[in-house]
Amino acid sequence: MTWETIAKTDAERAFAALTDPDAGRAAFDWDQAAEMLDGLPGGGLNIAYEALDRHVAHGNGDRLALRWFGKDGDARDFTYADLARATARFANVLRHNGLQAGDRLYSLMGRKPELYIAALGTLKAGLVFSPLFSAFGPEPIRTRMEIGEANAVVTTESIYRRKIAKWRDEIPSLKTVFLVDVDDAPEGCVALGPALAAASEEFEVAATQPEDMALIHFTSGTTGRPKGAVHVHQAVYAHVATGRFALNLRPGAIYWCTADPGWVTGTSYGIISPLVNGATMLVDEAEFDLDRWYGMLEREKVEIWYTAPTAIRMMMRAGAEAAAPYDFSNLQFLASVGEPLNPEGVVWGKEVFGHPFHDNWWQTETGGIMIANLAAMDIKPGSMGKPLPGIEAGVVDSGSDPLRECATGEIGELALRPGWPSMMRTYLHEQARYDKTFRDGWYLSGDLAMKDEDGYFWFVGRADDLIKSSGHLIGPFEVESALIEHEAVAEAGVIGLPDETAGEVVKAYVSLNPGYEPSEELERDIRGHARKKLGPAVAPREVVFRNTLPKTRSGKIMRRLLKARELGLPEGDISTLETDES
Ligand code: ATP
Ligand code: MG
Asked: Which positions fall inside the AMP-binding enzyme C-terminal domain (predicted)?
């Protein structure tokens, strides 16, 4: 692709946590991450202790930890000491209700303060925390609770009645239901508010060990049935180091991660990483709203902002004019994750916010950021950047036995050398599947990528999404990025369809920017634009218009669903589907 490299200014380099990323990478080992933290006073390691109590012990309890904004205009502030006390109360409530270290607590609610208190209070008590999206329907909730053998859930009365009450008794492990919004709980449930009020603020943090299970995260379900990835307390080494290197989190930095904790990003970088780094995190209970978001960036003087391509494309769709009235001068660093970030989005960030978006890559399985564009690195728009300190990444030919490392520029499977602290320890009840992801000393990610001569990694597509047409290997990302450069196109999803002569042909689904209407002429124009950018062999044969594209709750385009629907095949697991108008 022909986007100019964005060179970093001296100020941007000076702001970076790693001013010389290549040297920083060479000098780093994970013991240094351990040194960024304290460990438990009596031995052991606990994420919640590192996130909260450590700061209090160091005399920083008065620093603002969480500034929360409610849907309806209310707001609440919590210092590190406030959260340390609130989570101690929560941990005591767990104990009073018979829950023990190792038990599993699920959360199922919107981004309310109680969610954050529950997450850290659960870890403090030595229980395992598993966050779910509150918008999941009863079946996805039930399946995930069965897979993870839930012992307790924290939720709202309405969610409980609508989505859990009916089948609750059929999950034998599920002992306790905490309701956050009632004073008198219905039978079989505990009213959390009064219980917290009655509980002590003193709690000795559970003496968890580095390898004790801490978190169960379900994958987004983009490519199939979601998997339950298990993470341990030691993951906090990765949370602290990657947050510092890839997001420049530092004590007192004003930081906003827009992800919901139901998606791994919203827990690793929406709770743990900012707090272990001593930052001030903002949380907005409301969903995306352009003016609300721009207003938040300006009013709260956000310095570091971590969001996702789907939101960036929504902002782009509204145009730079919508952003013009706002003052974004406090922003210092912008990052994006979850899907490939089209080069146009990277550059748009620079135009509108004064800084490019820094794309980074990781997965539920990896627990933390693995490959990133760092603040001090020049950005090649469309590239995911380079491996972080402590991470060795490669591109391998997974068709060869033993695995062969690909040459520069050659497309292969993105692989990582196992051994970083936040690597999943298993997929729950799917040990064989977990084992299969490791071969010849590599962890295989299931994504396709290539590495260029400067060591930058470029995302090509999911291994399942690669299109083979007339001898060409076509990654959907490249085609989608070319399509959204057309002035009319807001989003694009690209799939391969079986074809007798070509093997497969490329078909694109696009949604349009405001002011454009679907027409045959526009379709021809978009195809012409793509042909010019990509050449006739790679450009889509057909472009169809959609109001929205099917996406997961974490905002990822579900190409497998576009394909299944096109071919009249079973839709498979759609428990994480969010928009469904296609
Ligand atoms: P499932 O594994 O259930 O199909 P999922 O892979 O979408 O769902 P996540 O773990 O939330 O679940 O997402 C990780 C995947 O998201 C990566 O493997 C990759 O395909 C994609 N991804 C994340 N960040 C990036 C990025 N910066 N560029 C390209 N793709 C990305
Ligand atoms: Mg995946």
From this structure: 478-556
